[in-house]
Amino acid sequence: QVQLVESGGGYVQAGGSLRLSCAASGSIFNLSAMGWHRQAPGKQRELVARISRSGTTSYTDSVKGRFTISRDNAKTTVYLQMNSLKPEDTAVYYCFFVDVVLRNYWGQGTQVTVSS
Question: What's the pLDDT score for residue 97?
Fold first, then answer.
């Protein structure tokens, strides 16, 4: 049973930075992509950033130029570097891994709070 463990959330003032990490406890065969979603209070969960098996990255418009997704060479850990944070970035952030048959694995969520 693969588990994803997140770390790195916290409280930061606007303009600050945080780095989220998500490590898989085991190997996921036929990995297709890794990434991060977030869910703010009263809002739907949204895809924030994604990195494909080949390394192609994509971001939601609101974080482009501020957030960077990366992974380790073994493809067992995914990171989200968040710079120039804004209060509207406040949310619970969830990492995910998805395999080629669209089986999703989720982290437990980590709270990010940005004060104005």
Answer: 95
